[in-house]
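User: Please look over both lines:
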Amino acid sequence: MYEQLKLDNQLCFRLYTASRLITQAYRPYLEPLGITYTQYLVLMVLWEKDNLLVSEISERLMLDTNTVTPLLQRMEHEDLLVRTRSVVDARQKLVSLTKKGRRLEEQAKEVPACMVAKLPFLGNDPTRIQAFIENLNGMIDMLKE
């Protein structure tokens, strides 16, 4: 057997597993809010800057619009956001938070701290957390190219 083909030697498997387990760890914090992890990501984008085009949300989340559009449709059905035609280009949809979507920001404000507490290797040190984020960003940037 080739050593490089052993699952235990795969960095990508560790990253995949960590991503899946982190998403799972969010569940107890997001279920009471009635949202999924991917909906939480969309909401964070809109809490930061409301009234964005679908393409801007897709770009920010590094997802294809074909992936984001059905998610936005479900969120609109749940009254978290509204999609309207852009006045600049009728082919584009503008996404805005509803009152319900805005209220969730207050309810979700403790979620990041709860998640950091689940990662004790980072401690509660903002410098260590930021350094870890920057390392991951560097890896993401290299993989995007």
